[in-house]
Specification:
The protein is mostly helical. It is 20% helix and 0% strand. The protein contains one helix and no strands. It has one helix at residues 2-11. The protein starts with a helix and ends in a 39-residue tail after the last helix. The mean pLDDT is 76.
């Protein structure tokens, strides 16, 4: 713990943390670019004739 505390004091808060703490996700999907069609339409699937 002394090493962890000294590294966090030297380089900033939460530079080194225990895995049980987890981490926040700083990213999120950009919903404004989401297609209004939530599923594929049958007419969008190409037809293959053999």
């Amino acid at each position: 713990m002394k090493i962890s505390d000294s590294l966090n004091n030297r380089y900033g808060c939460d530079v080194l943390f225990i895995a049980a703490q987890g981490n926040d996700q700083h990213w999120a999907m950009r919903r404004e670019f989401l297609s209004p069609q939530y599923t594929t339409k049958w007419s969008d699937i190409p037809t293959v004739k053999a």
